[in-house]
Amino acid sequence: MATKKKMTLAFYQNLGKLFYAIAASDGNVRPIEFDKLKNLVKTQWLDIDELEDTFGTDAAYQIEIVFDWLNEKEELNAEACFKDFIAYKKGQNHLFTPDIRRLTLKTASTIAYAFSGINKSELALLAKLDIELKIP
């Protein structure tokens, strides 16, 4: 999947916040949710662009790094991370092409369904995300 938009590290870091928010919305991030995310980063997100971080690593890995870091910080909550992502998306809406929007929703849904299907809190957050991603 290619895009002509110039992605940034902040783009991938904010996706990490979003996906963490989905996984943590029920108050518990399970290893299978992180495993599903890692799989999608490797199979889908790495192909978005050629951007690398200062260490020469594909920038898409920032999604995993931020997710993992947030998971270690117990004082951060899912709602705050979701709001941070939405604020970023509104400010950088040009980066969210139709393909990126679809992949974002696919990744969020995969994380939500990873452990015993989707629960109410995950469903509510996915619905909010779907609405936000439809706003041009």
Task: Summarize, please.
The protein is an all-alpha fold and 136 residues long. It has helices spanning 9-24, 31-43, 61-72, 78-91, 98-113, 120-134.
Can you offer a commentary on this structure?
The protein is mainly alpha-helical and 136 residues long. The chain has one domain: Orthogonal Bundle (TerB-like). Helix content is 63%, strand content 0%. The chain contains six helices and no strands. It has helices spanning 9-24, 31-43, 61-72, 78-91, 98-113, 120-134. α1 (9-24) crosses α3 (61-72). It is globular. The two termini are 20 Å apart.
Q: Whole-number radius of gyration? A: 14 Å
Instruction: Give the class-level CATH name.
Output: Mainly Alpha
Global geometry: globular
| Individual helix count | 6
List descriptors.
136 residues; mainly alpha; TerB-like; 0% strand
Secondary structure layout:
Elements: H1 9-24, H2 31-43, H3 61-72, H4 78-91, H5 98-113, H6 120-134
